[in-house]
Amino acid sequence: MYQDRILLTGKDILEKEFKIDTRGYRPQEVDKFLDIVIRDYEEFYAIIKDIENEKKDLIEDNIKLKQEIRNLRTKLSVLQEEGSSSGVSNSDLLRRLSNLEKIIYGKE
């Protein structure tokens, strides 16, 4: 994904040859600096790979959670339909409980 946008690899940097002038740079300093750049590039690649793997895992988890939400909503709607189709409301249940208490405890 990101590799398409990055022009250089660690190998490209390592194998780069510079022309030396009479007033050119010191080759040891250039090599030392390029070694640091190579290490950074390799670390960037590792970080990018880790982030892409984490992103992939999060997307998979998100898909699973969305499916679970759909399943729970379906179950909830089925339960609500069953409750409403039986015609029993909370007030009906409370009235029945009250009547049963009166019968059991003999209270009027």
Considering the chains and any ligands shown, give keywords for the structure.
108 residues; mainly alpha; rod-shaped
Write the layout of secondary structure elements.
Layout: H1 10-15, H2 27-85, H3 90-105
How would you characterize this protein structure?
It is a single chain. The radius of gyration is 36 Å and the shape is rod-shaped. The mean pLDDT is 81. It is mostly helical and 108 residues long. It has helices at residues 10-15, 27-85, 90-105.
Q: How many β strands by DSSP? A: 0
Uncertain runs: none
> What's the multimeric state?
single chain
Distance between the termini: 78 Å
Helix/sheet category:
mainly alpha
Strand content: under 5%
What proportion of the residues is helical, as a percent range? Answer: over 70%
Averaged pLDDT: 81
